[in-house]
User: Fold these one by one.
Assistant:
Number 1:
Amino acid sequence: MKQTIFLFRHNRRKFLKDVSLAFGATAMGLPMASFASSCQSSGSDKENTQVEQTGQDNGQNRKLGIALVGLGNYATNQLAPALQETEHCYLAGIVTGTPSKAETWKRKYKIPEKNIYNYETYDQIADNPDIDIIYIVLPNGMHAEYTVRGARAKKHIISEKPMATSVADCQRMIEACKENKVKLSIGYRLHFEPHHQRVMELGQQQVYGPVQRIEAEDSFVIGGSPDRWRLDKELAGGGPLMDLGIYCVQGAIYTMGKTPVAVTAKFGEVTRPDFFDEVEQSINWQMEFADGAMANCTTSYNKNQNLLYGKAEKGWWRLQPSFGYSGIQGETSEGPMNLPNVNQQARQMDDFALCILDDREIPVPGEMGLRDVRILESIYEAARTGNRVEIKV
Ligand code: NAD
């Protein structure tokens, strides 16, 4: 046992060292990482003991078991493949309402029958020691219910972005995790991506002096059928702002290392009324920071664009494309960034597993998700009323 613990510790340290060597002083050490988690565990010894009893042992290390809830596009094409590369967690279980998907996943990922649930049997996950973490990858309007139920099952939770479709739901999720002494994180994968970590450093450490202006856009042309959940107000919470604009909000905030104090906003024209009868087709907004810096942001479901740009007193930087799973390119006023593209989701999930194993602060906690949903609500209010809306976070 002693040897196992030693190897576990050794591997963990090696991982952290590799990360910091590869990317310099990054997100973990910057102000954005200082979000205090409200979901403190009851103690690291207890949690490590639990992990040693329940996690997968590959002979060298303990891995935490993750169950993915909702086997749609993101779970299928990004998270499950990423879980084949993680060092500190693995795909232990699934929750799906589609029996044929359960069969396919069971065979493909060798998931034992006892770790496969549907939405009716979901709560029984409480009795399954193989599952340490529940990862909610359902439509936005379902994140709150499945997080609360998952927390009651005493499992740590990752909820996809946006955390929920209302501030009240975000608060419910945080509360449930606190009460049940489990940790809560949001699927903010870009905090673990080297180009974005560089932007945090450039902006927050004022490498080129104070930031004056940020430009951010995340847009794509939505296809498929008009009755998809992303266009349904109840399930999505809103249109591209909830889905994509959240990356612009995040990008501006982690460039600055602080939250904006006020927003103004304007909905764009609706040119496809068959698609956009419940949610916006596009929206432009401005975020004002206390020191006078401004972020001009756009998101649309009717064009393709992907940009995070920052201008400081003595230099600038640009990520373009900026928010994708791979292919991010960065340059500064001094030249190309020359940073690697990595498996963002693998890093994100490994970091959460280490937060649990080490009982340390989560860099992307529920409180950050709540803050962002509050800002999204303020942007909608500004667009609806035409007023400048102050943000109180
Ligand atoms: P998707 O439509 O591909 O998958 C949704 C899944 O939920 C499907 O398996 C579907 O069967 C299931 N589901 C259960 N109940 C449903 C209902 N009532 N209506 C519709 N579907 C229902 O969506 P997705 O693209 O995988 O997105 C899922 C979540 O992941 C969203 O919250 C989204 O914002 C988030 N996401 C995050 C990223 C990221 O980069 N972090 C990328 C894509 C999606």
Number 2:
Amino acid sequence: MAQEDVFKKLIAHCKEYGYVFQSSEVYDGLGAVYDYGQNGVELKNNIKKYWWDSMVLLHENVVGIDSAIFMHPTIWKASGHVDAFNDPLIDNKDSKKRYRADVLIEDQLARFEEKMNKEVAKAKKRFGDAFDERQFRDTNPRVLANQQKWNDLHERFSKALNDNNLEELKQIIVDQEIVCPISGSRNWTDVRQFNLMFATEMGSTSDGAMKVYLRPETAQGIFVNYLNVQKTGRMKIPFGIAQIGKAFRNEIVARQFIFRMREFEQMEMQFFVRPGSELDWFEKWKETRMKWHKALGFGDDNYRFHEHEKLAHYANAAVDVEYKFPFGFKEVEGIHSRTDFDLSQHQEYSGKKIQYYDPELGESYVPYVVETSIGVDRMFLQVISASYCEEEVEAANGKKDTRVVLKLPVALAPIKLAVMPLVKKDGLPEKAREIIDDLKFDFNCQYDEKDSIGKRYRRQDAIGTPFCVTVDHQTLEDQTVTIRSRDTMGQERVTIDKLKGIISEQTSIKALFEKLK
Ligand code: ATP
């Protein structure tokens, strides 16, 4: 199946099974804003818990905060967002559609990469085990020609971004003959800058209200609380502050479902270090974060680091963790060495000293910062797209059938077990409820008695529930139930008193943390 079709199915699946709904759907929706349904919110909470605990529980020098969305407007002046939180936009005059100029060029780079990968895949198939990919890439004329095109474009693009040269960005789009995917034309406007912050007004004094912003990142809430946390927690450098919260960006082009939203959630951690040690910490956090992703078991080859073409004004090193979504490798997380930029700016704009007295050095300094910043929603999309499978299975009548199953990492699954009475009579529902009453404080359980047992299994597979427990007549006699596994579809008969142990052993988040050691 083409990857685009997989993606469409995934979106439909998210809606059908209570994961993600378009916001304000009854009013025909609101662009790039989404709501999470009954299963979506549980998965999202589990992702947040995986991140939060991996930061705050597993690192004794990382603590959390929860700062407000509204902040003093000068914060955004100091951080550079008022003047520089811009994206270069371009319109196609025929379709009237708006694009990010940098994204159009990145897509063109991806096209060259795709051509090279196709040649490699073809040759791999032809030569089998004897195939030497490195040698092929170094010598095949078609690969070399595309590599050259990639290199030239990449160099020109990076320079244009770094020089903030909007005319050159437009010229690249023209020279590369990039067309609008809707109209198919090359009738482009000039490239302009567009600020991504949403503004609103606070208060209603006679002098007028104050203009405030919806925060476009959670990081600044951490920086302006650095001193509060350091002092009240008696924190010693190096230490980190973690935060999960909403962020808002008026994205020019919102596409790819929950990949790029106008209201989204971030999980950010700012790690304060001694000046000069930031690049070592940057490497450490790169490694730590990659491990966190890979522990989920979605395949190591589906991740890569991507160096930034252009460093943000505050950074001296930056890398993205990219995951292979159905629409290609894209950023899920950014790791940035932000130097002392933010704290120094807040020191200057607030007029308050924001420093750390280092007892080992016997001097005070503005700490340097390494940041890890990941979007909850992008992570959600990663988890869902890695987990969605369609499997061919044999139906009860011997015919082939397709089973749709979400093979979510069990620790993240919204519902850990469904308890089902085989029939709705003979005391089986009561017995099933009794089991749920016993387990509901430990796991998120669901009671399900509607439809045939086969249909109920499929429904739970589609939600991603790792275990189904069935109560039948034998249960009333010998206190045993069957427990069915989502992934293997294998069933086992066990006594009810064993359920808690089996399920907690298999679904505990601890197993993920073990992999992070
Ligand atoms: P992009 O280049 O995709 O716009 P970015 O580099 O601006 O992302 P950062 O400012 O580094 O992103 O934000 C950190 C993380 O927040 C990103 O890696 C991503 O997971 C998430 N994120 C950023 N913008 C959005 C958005 N509009 N919708 C959903 N998640 C987002």
